Amino acid sequence: MTDRLTKACGALRVPRGALLDALRELSWGPVLRPGPHAVRALYEQVLEAVGELPLDTVQPGDISAAMQVRTGVLDVHVPPPSDALAQCIAHTVDDRGVGELGELARYALDRTGLTSGAATVACGREAGGQGALDRLAAEVLVHEIIERSPQAWGRGHADAVRAATYRSLADLADALLEVSESTPTHLDWADDDANQQQCASAHIRGTVRPVVVHRRDTGVASDTAYEHHPTLPQPSAWAWRLEPGPGEPIPHGRGPYPSALAARHAAECAVTALAAGRCRLEDEHA
To answer: What would the DSSP string read from start to end of 103-170?
Structure first.
């Protein structure tokens, strides 16, 4: 196992076989369906490629930016290592046949991701930057991807799935970069099922502070691409909070996060920064 993958497993406290699913839990995207199918193999292949990047050579966000440069969405300079990896991702996806693209649409992409891919294909930019006609064209393309079997897709449908997959894999790569270079303070979390939360204690500058990870009532939800074939439950919104210390009237925290794992990891990274005096959270409330 490479050093970067080893560090990511250590930061998230998961074995290598669970790293992919853990990284997916850090984002709002849908979780991959369990099992040894082609989609998982593709994502694992990208993880291995990212794991070969030496530490401190690229920053989180570089690979997503490089992918947007390659697809014509951005026109900026990106570090050569991130551009090389973006090219590797693109070539890997382009080698997939229509059957595997159908599996990607069904088990690894949500409607938001497909809409972004369709917008890139329909008008050369991601969702959010088009006019009404462009948005309509992208929506029609997504609807046809969902309703038609892959064997009935045209070139535009397949290209939209490819574009969505480029972005999904680039986001996964950036998540691995970020986690592998994070420095969480591992806390001993205890479940409080009655209140739908998890609790721990953190030592910050000589003071023991309660830390709570809890569900939130609102947040972004992900929908599966093929609505008539739902896979795993949609993610719910989570947040973390640091209970008030002496002289503090309110707790501090952040959210929403797509999973308890993501909220725990964010809290542990914040504890590290707070203990080292690298950040303050007076105005950030969960």
So the answer is: HHHHHT-BHHHHHHHHHHHHHSS-TTSS-HHHHHHHHHHHHHHHHS-GGG--HHHHHHHHHHHHHHHH
The total of other beta-carbon atoms located within 10 Å of residue 35's CB is 8
Report pLDDT digits (tens) over 48-87: 999 988 888 889 999 999 999 988 888 889 999 999 999 9
Beta strands in the chain (DSSP E): 190-192, 197-204, 207-215, 238-242, 252-257
The number of C-alpha atoms within 13 Å of 221 and in the hemisphere containing its C-beta is 9
On the 0-12 / 13-18 / 19+ scale of CB atoms within 10 A, 279 is exposed
Closest CA to 258 of 98, 10, 31, 6: 31
Nearest residue to 248 (alpha-carbon basis) of 204, 217, 189: 204
Q: Mean pLDDT, the chain, as a whole number?
A: 84
- Phi, psi (5° rounding) for residue 52? -80, -15
Q: Are 118 and 160 in contact (CB under 8 A)?
A: yes
Residues 48-62 as b or e (16 or more Cβ within 10 Å = b): ebbbebeeeebebeb
For residues 272 and 211, give the distance between their C-alpha atoms in angstroms, rounded to a whole number.
Answer: 13
Determine the Cα–Cα distance for residues 50 and 33; give it in Å rounded to an integer. 22
Torsion from C-alpha of 219, 224, 228, 232, nearest 10 degrees: -80
Q: What is the Cα–Cα distance from 57 to 76, expressed in whole angstroms?
A: 18
The CA-based diameter of the chain, rounded to the nearest angstrom, is 65
Q: What is the pTM of this model?
A: 0.85
